[in-house]
TrEMBL record:
PROSITE patterns from the UniProt entry: AA_TRANSFER_CLASS_3, PROKAR_LIPOPROTEIN
Protein name: Ornithine aminotransferase
Top-level division of the source organism's lineage: Eukaryota
Listed cofactors: pyridoxal 5'-phosphate
Chemical reaction(s) catalysed: a 2-oxocarboxylate + L-ornithine = L-glutamate 5-semialdehyde + an L-alpha-amino acid
E.C. number(s) listed in UniProt: 2.6.1.13
Enzyme type, top EC level: transferase
A GO MF label: pyridoxal phosphate binding
Pfam families hit by this protein: Aminotran_3
Organism, scientific name: Papilio machaon (Old World swallowtail butterfly)
Signal peptide: 1-33
Keywords attached to this entry: Aminotransferase, Pyridoxal phosphate, Signal, Transferase
GO cellular component: cytoplasm
GO biological process: L-arginine catabolic process to L-glutamate; L-arginine catabolic process to proline via ornithine; L-proline biosynthetic process
Amino acid sequence: MQNIKESNAKWIFAGYCLWISVASCVVDQEVMAQNKLSSEEIFALEDKYGCRNYAPLQVALTRGEGVFVWDVEGRRYYDFLSAYSAVNQGHCHPRIIKALNEQASKLTLVSRAFYSDQLGKYEKFMTELLGYDRLLPMNTGVEGGESACKIARKWGYEVKKIPQNQAKKALKDPNVAAFMVEPIQGEAGVVKPDTGYLQKVRALCTKYNVLWIADEVQTGLGRTGKLLAVEHEGVKPDILILGKALSGGVLPVSAVLANNNVMDVIKPGTHGSTYGGNPLACAVATEAIKVLLEDKLIENAARLEAVFRAELEKIPKSKVNVVRGRGLMFAIVIDDSIPAYEVCKRLRDAGLITKPTHGQTIRLAPPLVITEQQIREGASIIQKVLEDFKK
């Protein structure tokens, strides 16, 4: 593999056809030549003109390919965050970019005031794949969650006949409409529930006629080694929310799926989105899902779980207290004596980028196109940075 000189290659091994990036050097001179702003100038622009709702790691990225990204000075990094699991198919996957360009040259937006030749095909493809009657197309994961709550609220009043303004929180109360949960909590630090938890959720929701909403915006579409994380326990939610990797990280696309008895509470004029279900999004999302399936990226995530876990568990316990995860969705909990943000800065300097989430937890979620060799290389960087860390 070391003899491959091209910047792109398709490697076929162990039954997996993975599109990846092969780079012979850490610094890309062409990238450096194309960029006129330095990293420091980019940081200053955002700091002066942007709302400070994020505290980004100081790295200014300009290009991505496969599992790698490059900053404006041409330095290459392993991406072990994948835009919070939005880039499961790898940065700028050529098939997804081709679908984007082809559709963008024909028609991008009509709103839902008219039909397009893309939306119905996309809805059919997704509902048949996931086993639901209907799909509500939206844009962001947050919109997907809000739409699911709106559907559940209307269902509670119109189908379950909860009296107006009397919805309660307790599951046994007859006025509760729905229970919403992530199968694995992402932003909380990749917190995986005990085995059997989701089966009990399903049983309780069925018993008390409560809708179960599964937020699979982060966990869905291959990230945990299954198409959906709920599949690990063989259960099916009443309402499913998807986002992030639904577009392969190319543009905002989300979806809410449910059966007729739930989705039919939405009538014309009761829920809208100008961009939801636009032709560009439909074409991109369809191709993004086909890439996941045809390139066997879900199987790759499942296969590499044990490798990634074993490599992370080599890190001394004095540095990492906990390793947890499923598929290629992992987190490590750094010892309290070591600042997690400082660890991420040193990982950046060593050629790997990710971010802490909630204190001492560092999330690790590389694109699903990653190879076993690249997993080992990334884990080796993490191990070396932590072993060399001095208080």
